[in-house]
Amino acid sequence: MHALTEKDVRSSFANASLRERNSLTLPTGFDDLDWDARDFLAWRDPKLAPLGYVVAILDDRPVGILLRVSDQPTRTRPQCSWCEDVTLPNDVVFFSAKRSGQAGRRGDTVGTLVCARYECPRNVRKLPPLAYPGFDREAARERRIVALRENVVNFVRDIRDSD
Predict the structure, then answer these.
(1) CA distance 15 to 12
(2) pTM for the full model?
(3) How far apart are CA 21 and CA 12, in angstroms?
(4) Looking at the predicted structure, is the pLDDT value of residue 73 above 80?
(5) What is the enclosing helix (H) or strand (E) of 106?
(6) What is the mean pLDDT of the chain?
(7) Contacts of 117 (CB under 8 A, 6+ apart)
(8) Are 100 and 162 in contact (CB under 8 A)?
(9) 20 to 30 A from 108, CA-CA: which of 13, 33, 76, 136?
(10) What string of DSSP letters covers 85-144?
(11) Taking Cα atoms as reference points, which of 64, 59, 26 lies closest to residue 156?
């Protein structure tokens, strides 16, 4: 992911009002982020616990999505739809995001199950267990990294391209 400025991040949100963009709290250590090591930028708002943000690069431009955590807890231990990790050491929550444009103004939303603190990049980089003799664990890890990027980009694109 290429480096973003505060202005880039704030102006990237496809489904947030100007007031929401201006009031968001950037992630801790934003100025020191290692952008080359990032698949996407995601964080929870430290001042407003139910809010989360994700910024991905689509067509060489940052696109941000404002997410809200559901008030209702999940009944079972769900699987994250971004990293698809089945041995998660962390919580997965249901996030909803209003669509951009006219669809969002009508109240249309999309929901997804995601790691509560966006631990997905760390999860997909764990070396998977040996499934069978000769199993290429490194190739499996690389496939999971690529799948994570595609899952996040597809989610962001779905929100942005709703009209």
Answers:
(1) 9
(2) 0.89
(3) 9
(4) no
(5) none
(6) 90
(7) 44, 90, 91
(8) yes
(9) 76
(10) -SS-SS-EEEEEEEPSHHHHHTT-EEEEEEETT--HHHHHHSPPP--STT--HHHHHHHH
(11) 64
Record the tokens describing residue 55, joined without a space. Answer: 């910024």
Question: Helix or strand or coil: residue 122?
Answer: helix
| pLDDT at residue 5, as a whole number | 94
What is the domain partition of the chain in residue ranges? 6-160
Helix (H/G/I), strand (E/B), else coil: 78: coil
Under DSSP, is residue 45 helix (H, G, I), strand (E, B) or coil?
coil
121: enclosing H helix or E strand: helix 120-125
Residue 16 and residue 12: Cα distance in Å, rounded? 9
| pLDDT recorded at residue 45 | 92
Q: Which of 27, 106, 95, 37 is nearest to 66 (CA)?
A: 95
pLDDT tens-digit map of 91-110: 889 999 999 988 888 889 99
Per-residue model confidence (pLDDT) at position 163: 56
